[in-house]
Amino acid sequence: RHSGLTRYNGGWASMFRSMKMRLETTLGVRGIEHIGSTAIPGMVARPTIDMLLYVDSIDDALTFSKKLEPLGWKTDDLSDNPYRTFSKYHMDTPVYRLYVVPNGMD
């Protein structure tokens, strides 16, 4: 699924803030960060809002799947990786992606 690049959209920051509040409430966490090209004002970007959440244990991601899937999020199959990602799509294009990473991993 290729999203292509697009000009900077000033609405990306507010899209992030809105989704951050919903996710932090749904997951019972704090500290979701806006990362990637959409977080850099003025930069040409792939129009997916990338977000990062550090957790104490990657096992936390298992409980996140159960909370996010009913809201239309997909758990990406990354079983060989030490982190997990969740994506929310619109018409086969990822609009939001949440990276869940254990503390201490860069």
Written description of the protein model:
With 106 residues, this protein is of the alpha+beta class. The chain has 2 helices and 5 strands, in the order H-E-E-H-E-E-E. It is globular, with a radius of gyration of 13 Å. The two termini are 26 Å apart. The model has no long low-confidence stretch (mean pLDDT 89).
Ranges with pLDDT <50 over ≥5 residues?
Answer: none
The secondary-structure element order is HEEHEEE
Number of helical regions: 2
Gap between N and C termini, in Å?
26 Å
Adjacency order of strands in the biggest sheet: 1-2-5-4-3
- Share in β-strands: 25-35%
Largest sheet: 5 strands, mixed
- The coarse silhouette is globular
The share of residues in helices is: 10-25%
SSE-based structural type: alpha+beta
List the helices and strands and how they pair.
Elements: H1 12-27, E1 33-35, E2 49-55, H2 60-68, E3 73-75, E4 84-90, E5 93-102
Parallel strand pairs: 2-5
Antiparallel strand pairs: 1-2, 3-4, 4-5
Keywords:
single chain, alpha+beta, 2 helices, 106 residues
Quick summary:
By secondary structure, the chain is an alpha+beta fold. It is built from 2 helices and 5 strands; from the N terminus they run H-E-E-H-E-E-E.
